[in-house]
Amino acid sequence: CETKTKDNVFVNVVASIQYRALADKANDAFYKLSNTKGQIQAYVFDVIRASVPKLNLDDVFEQKNEIAKAVEDELEKAMSAYGYEIVQTLIVDIEPDEHVKRAMNEINAAARMRVAANEKAEAEKILQIKRAEGEAESKYLSGLGIARQRQAIVDGLRDSVLGFSVNVPGTSAKDVMDMVLLTQ
Hints:
Blueprint: E1 2-4, E2 10-21, H1 26-31, H2 36-51, H3 57-62, H4 64-80, E3 84-96, H5 98-167, H6 173-183
Antiparallel strand pairs: 1-2, 2-3
Helix pairs in contact: 2-4, 5-6
Keywords: Coiled coil, Lipoprotein, Myristate
Protein name: PPLZ
InterPro entries: Band7/mec-2_domain, Band_7, Band_7/SPFH_dom_sf
């Protein structure tokens, strides 16, 4: 049955009806109704065409059991007078128009691409942060190394000045420093 939803989307709704003639009303089933299948189909189409236009496309998918129940209730009322029992009613397929399906798939694909782009950007951000942290740690350690190197140079100069001052009497620390700087 083709019908239009509240949001103007054409859908084809396929229903499956399981029914049987009641044993105690076999005469009614045989003589009162000549085209059982056609009559049931007419009732099904009528209920679907009355129910689906009240719903948006997404709601049609979500409420297919309610639509099936409405079809079953209407059929039960109508067909019991003719000696038939409605055993089960199922909405087995809801097919939107091909253009609508394609558009829905494109929307879903775009949403997934957007999520993937966000995840990729977040991963790149984390990578850059880790790279910057590593670079900062490297510079910090390099600075510590340079500071220790300079401290060792200062300690060496001090030891040299003290040693020279002790071994050569009459020289001041300034004289020794001037001489060391001259030789460098």
